[in-house]
Design brief:
The complex is a heterodimer of chains A (259) and B (191). Chain A is mainly α and 259 residues long. Chain A contains 7 helices and no strands. Chain A has one domain. The longest helix of chain B is centred in the middle third of the chain and has 132 residues. The chains are: A mainly alpha (259), B mainly alpha (191). Chains A and B meet through helix 1, helix 2, helix 3, helix 4 and helix 5 of A and helix 1 and helix 2 of B.
Chain lengths: 259, 191
């Protein structure tokens, strides 16, 4: 589809640009599934489709995969247990036993991001995690949840997070300002890191794909796409891991605000 | 997705048909689709739906199940290890009992051998004593008989000597009384 589109546009509009047409951002367009151009909040769009597939993949792995409840697990059950064990251990190592109450939420975040990232790597798919709207909601939910939890659990002691009692007294107000700024930058970096990584990788692959239209460069371009794809597979997992581990760290700050 | 090209073409052809948010007349993205705010409510709504579904599925079904399986496995492994330890102890006990039984049997065997030896020794001693007594009796008897025979022989020699002496004296024509011959023979035999 993309090829024919490129061909059409090359013929009409971009003929002056030497036969090259780059539309690396088209893959991120939100489109209604059933035609039309209005996008209301309830319209089924490609966002709906790919989030539904994400949910389906999670159900397939964690529910269908573990239905045997075998003492000696099948392959799918092993992967489900591995995922469970990894997130569980991460949460317990960072936040301690008290943090385990929030395990289903952390697991939800990890599963959603990792499956959305991997589904986004399927050619012609739509990466839901490349959108700042999605990652910002994920990050804001963590930020607000952790802040509210911190005040509910510790009351005003939560503000000790900003008052570095181990520093010399004259430095503490300065550090407090820095700490407050860094605290409020958290959701921004938390969300842009994920969306930025996914978006940049996909866009770069698309740019290389655009170069493949020139026969002389095509082999290099295809090699570069392959290499980038390998990198993106790593990024898909690593960014999900990073998002989850940061969520755990923020949760630890809410549960134990002392430095 | 295959309809998108036609859609784009339709957009280009028919300006009355409104464009997809964030696209130009050719259906390509203008700037970053991530910053087209018209799509935000849609994305956020479907994200929240997806998150709620995932959360419910995980917290109600998947996580308790997997957690249960892991706990069960850990329990089984612990139990198996405990059973193995117990069996090891039992094996040690059995070995000790076996060793003890072996030692007992050896001691018993040694006792029986000693008893048998003692009995045989007693029998042997009794038989030896009996044989000694018998031999002594036989020897005494034989000695008596030899003595008898020797006495008999002496007597016979005396008698023959006397007879011979009397015969010889008679042959010489002399007469000798029996008393003198006896004395002479006795003196000669002694001498």
């Amino acid at each position: 589809m993309r090829g024919s589109e490129v061909a059409t546009e090359t013929a009409t509009e971009h003929a002056a640009e030497g036969g090259l047409a780059f539309h690396p951002m088209d893959q991120f367009l939100v489109r209604p599934l059933f035609g039309g151009s209005e996008i209301h909040w309830y319209t089924p769009t490609n966002v709906t489709l790919w989030m539904a597939l994400t949910v389906l993949a999670i159900v397939l792995l964690l529910v269908v995969g573990s239905r045997g409840r075998a003492i000696v697990p099948s392959r799918a059950q092993s992967v489900a247990e591995l995922t469970f064990g990894m997130v569980h251990k991460m949460l317990e190592d960072i936040t301690g036993k008290e943090g385990l109450k929030y395990f289903p939420y952390v697991m939800t975040l990890f599963c959603f991001i990792v499956f959305a990232n991997f589904l986004g790597l399927i050619p012609m798919s739509f990466s839901t995690t490349s959108h700042i709207a999605v990652t910002a909601v994920l990050a804001l939910m963590v930020f607000l949840g952790v802040t509210i939890l911190g005040f509910v659990k510790n009351g005003t002691h939560f503000l000790n997070l900003f008052w570095v009692s181990s520093a010399p007294l004259p430095l503490r107000p300065v550090l407090a300002v820095i700490e407050v700024i860094s605290y409020f930058v958290r959701p921004v970096s938390h969300s842009i890191r994920l969306a930025g990584n996914v978006m940049a990788g996909h866009a770069v692959i698309k740019v290389f794909a655009g170069f493949a239209a020139i026969a002389a460069i095509a082999p290099v371009s295809i090699l570069a796409i392959t290499a980038m794809y390998g990198l993106e597979v790593l990024v898909a997992l690593i960014q999900a891991y990073v998002f989850t581990i940061l969520t755990c760290v923020y949760l630890k700050d809410a549960l134990h605000p002392g430095h | 997705m295959a309809t998108t090209t036609e859609e784009a073409a339709a957009h280009a052809a028919d300006a009355v048909n409104p464009l997809l948010p964030g696209t130009d007349a050719h259906g390509s993205a203008v700037g970053m689709p991530q910053l087209v705010f018209e799509t935000f409510p849609n994305q956020i709504f479907w994200l929240l739906v997806a998150l709620v579904v995932i959360y419910l599925v995980l917290s109600r079904i998947a996580l308790p199940r997997i957690g249960g399986v892991l706990a069960e496995r850990a329990g089984t492994i612990t139990n198996d290890l405990a059973t193995a330890e117990e069996m090891k102890l039992k094996a040690r006990e059995a070995e000790a009992a076996y060793t003890k039984a072996l030692a007992d049997a050896r001691a018993e065997a040694a006792k029986i051998v000693a008893a048998a030896k003692a009995e045989i020794q007693a029998d042997l001693d009794a038989a030896t004593a009996h044989a000694d007594a018998e031999i002594a009796a036989k020897a005494a008897e034989s000695e008596a008989r030899i003595g008898e025979i020797r006495a008999g022989a002496l007597e016979a020699v005396n008698a023959v000597a006397r007879e011979a002496a009397a015969e010889i004296v008679a042959h010489f024509g002399a007469r000798a009384d029996a008393g003198a011959i006896d004395a002479a023979v006795a003196a000669r035999i002694k001498g």
